[in-house]
Design brief:
The protein is mostly helical. The chain has a single domain, classed as Up-down Bundle (Growth Hormone, Chain: A), CATH 1.20.1250.20. Helices cover 81% and strands 0% of the residues. It contains 13 helices and no strands. α9 crosses α11. It is globular. The C terminus is likely disordered.
Length: 385
Amino acid sequence: MKQTTLDKCNIFLVMFFISLIVRIQVPVFTPFAASFGASSMIIGIILSVTSLSNLTGNIIAGPLVDRFGKKVFITFPLFISGGLFIAHGLATSTTDLLILHGLNGFALAFMIPAAFTLLSGYAKNSRQQGKNIAINGMLSTIASIIAPLTGGKMVVLFGYVNTYFFIGAAMILTATYSFHFLKDRQVVSVKKQKQTHVTIGSVLKAPNLFLVYLIGFAVMYIHGVLLFEIPYLTVEQGLSTFQTGQLFSFMSIGTFLTLSLFFINLFDPFKRLMVGLCGMSIGIFGLLTSAFSLPILLFLIGIFFGLVMPAMATSITENAAKEVHGRAFGYMSAVFSLGIIASSSVTGAIRDIVSPYFIAVIIAIIVLTIAGYSKLNSPQMAHFK
C-alpha cells in the first residue's frame, strides 16, 4: 500500500512539474513571436500548426499507450520537448518558431494520454477516480497560478532567450526524474478477450463519449481564444508579460477554488460539464460586452473551468473500458487540440473584423443546445447517473 501511494505521488509530482514548466511560456510565446515581426495572423497559424501536430500525436499515441505501456510515452517525449524548448531560444525567425513549436506539440501529445491513463490505474471506482483527477487538477491549477507570473517575471529579468533555456532545462530534469521514479501500472483484465475488438469508431461513436468530446471541444475553443487574446494585450495595450501573467493567474485561482471542493465529484459528471460550459460562455460574453473588469471575468471563467476538467476525465473512465483508456484519453487530447486549432485559426483571421469572444459564445451556445437536446432525447444518457 505504501509503495502504491508513493508511486501515485510520483505521477502527481511529474504532472505538476510538466504543467508548471509548459505554462511558464503561456505569457511568453506571443510577444516573443511578435518580436520577430509576426502578425496576429502568423501567430494564429503557428498556434494552429502546433495544435494540429498535437492532435496527430494524440491519435497515434492512444493505441500505442494501451499496447506498450505508459512510462516510455511520458519520459521520452519530455526529453525531446526539453531540447525543443532550448532550441526556441536559438530561433532567428518566425519560420524557426513554426517548426519548433509544431514539433514540440507533437512530442507532448504522447505524454498527456499516457499520464492520464497511468493516473486512472490508481482508482478502484469512479469516486476515487474523480478525487484523483481533482487532486491532479488542483496541482495543475497551482502551476497555472505560479507559472504565468514566473514566466512574465523571468522575461523582464532575463529576456526571452534565457527564459526558454530555463524552460528546456527544467523539462529535461523532469524527464530524468520520471525515468527513475515512475512505475508502469498495468490494470488490464486478462479475461476480457472481447476488448481486443474495440476500434476507433466504436470508441468515438459511443453516445456518451461523443457528447463529452463535443463539450470538450467547445471548452477548449474558449480556452484557446483566451490563450491568444490575453497575451496579445502585451502587443496592443503595451502591458508587460508579468501583467498578462497576472491575468491568467486570476483564472487559475478560480479553477483552484472549484477543484478544492471535493464534494462536487459526487454530482453527475455530465451535468457538471453542461454547467461548466454554460458558465464559461457567460464569462466570455462578459468579456465581449466588458460588463465587468477583466480579472473578475477571468476568475469567473476559471471557476467554471474547474467544474469541467475532472468531470471530463471521470466521464471518460466511466464510459470506456480500462483496456482502451489510452485511446479514450488520446481522443480527448485530440479533441482539445482541435478546439485550440479552430480557435487559433479563427481568432487570428477575424480578430480585426469580429470579436473572437462573439464567435466563442456562438459555438458554446450551439454545443450546449446539441448536448442538452441529446440528453433529453437519448435513453443512453441515463448512464451518467
